């Protein structure tokens, strides 16, 4: 038991987590000064977009080898007005990508 604990006082630690250096300023820590009530989690759509990407990728590997499917996702596509399918999925606009994949499956652009 430490002397502070024996006297009933609360010990406070000024230890810096391993790997972090202090410059003496409270703003040197990424979490310093943040009000959790004002923070908004920008990630609620990420799980949905990941699932959309997985769904499209699964459909593409029925048509292409995995490396070709990856190239298709990250290449500009005329049927998507020159946009990359992965960019559209990242923006949450998966429907046009699914329409193009359906056209490919139907053999319209084989």
Protein described:
- By secondary structure, the chain is mostly helical.
- 40% of the residues lie in helices and 0% in strands.
- It has a domain of 60 residues.
Largest sheet: none
Mean pLDDT, to the nearest integer, reads: 75
Q: What is the oligomeric state here?
A: single chain
Our count of helices gives 5
Q: Choose one word for the global shape.
A: globular
Order of helices and strands: HHHHH
User: DSSP strand (E) fraction?
Assistant: under 5%
Gap between N and C termini, in Å? 76 Å
Q: How does the helix and strand content classify structurally?
A: mainly alpha
Roughly what percent helix? Answer: 40-55%
- Poorly predicted tracts of residues: 13-22, 25-29
Radius of gyration computed on alpha carbons: 26 Å
Number of strands: 0
Which structural traits does this protein have?
single chain, 110 residues, mainly alpha, 0% strand, globular
Lay out the secondary structure:
Blueprint: H1 3-6, H2 46-60, H3 66-73, H4 85-90, H5 95-105
């Amino acid at each position: 038991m430490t002397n502070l604990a024996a006297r009933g006082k609360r010990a406070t630690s000024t230890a810096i987590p391993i790997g972090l250096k202090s410059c003496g300023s409270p703003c040197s820590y990424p979490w310093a000064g943040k009000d959790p009530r004002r923070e908004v989690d920008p990630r609620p759509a990420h799980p949905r977009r990941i699932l959309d990407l997985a769904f499209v990728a699964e459909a593409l590997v029925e048509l292409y080898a995995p490396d070709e499917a990856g190239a298709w996702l990250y290449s500009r596509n005329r049927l998507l007005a020159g946009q990359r399918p992965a960019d559209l999925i990242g923006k949450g606009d998966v429907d046009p990508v699914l329409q193009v994949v359906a056209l490919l499956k139907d053999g319209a652009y084989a």
